[in-house]
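Hi everyone,

Forwarding the result from last night's run.
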Amino acid sequence: MSDLPLARRPIGIYDSGVGGLSVLRDIRTRLAADTLIYVADAGYVPYGEKSRHAIVARAIALTDFFVSQDVKAIAVPCNTATAAAINVLRERHPDLPIVGIEPAIKPAAKLTRSQVIGVMATTGTLASPRFRALVQREAPHARIVLQPCPSWVLAVEQGMVSGAQAEALVAPAVDAVLAEGADVLVLGCTHFPFLREAIAARAGADVPILETGDAVARQLQRVLQECGAERQDDAPGTTRFVTSGDPDALARVASRLLGVPVTADVLPAAYR
């Protein structure tokens, strides 16, 4: 363990690949001075088609890595990982703040006029008891149209987020949900905000598209403020990128998605 004061310790962030970068942007906006460590678990992408056992095993391994880096908090900006593993992680590390994510069902329930909400997500998220409980709690009177979109994850992992290919990719799913009467769309996977432009073009300007990256960032900031761990330096914080996959591939795609040059390291073998 390091001798760094709590506020100066890093924050760990992980997702199955590059999807969590959509939330990383919001975290960096709110916690500008903090040191971030982002792990893209690309050796196991996509999580959405994996068993709960496999997702929990990866969550434990990556959390152990973050603990080895003496992090002060962990964010899990992955709906599938949150649904499958967040309770396990909190039980294993009761003194470490761990912030998860969930689809934006609550704000969608307030916006819908037709009482039909379309949810684009991975198979794992949509099938989870945590998601069912969220719907029952926040939108008991709405009809939820579930649309698994595993191919969207793989497209974003390859950096295919705009242009004719992206538009053709999202069209069938968006059309199917709108045909069911949905008037609000929820992006229930952190990869999907990178396809937002193509989704919006297909859905039309009158259909709200909801994501929850800033909500995660706000909650993380709140937790750090409560325990006096938010870093207040004037200098901008740094971000370290790590992956269980190909670091060159992560650097290439992350640079494109974030619009800044990125370099990446390989996750140590003990955590792969």
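Residues 6-101+214-271 form a domain with the Rossmann fold fold (CATH 3.40.50.1860).

Cheers,
N.
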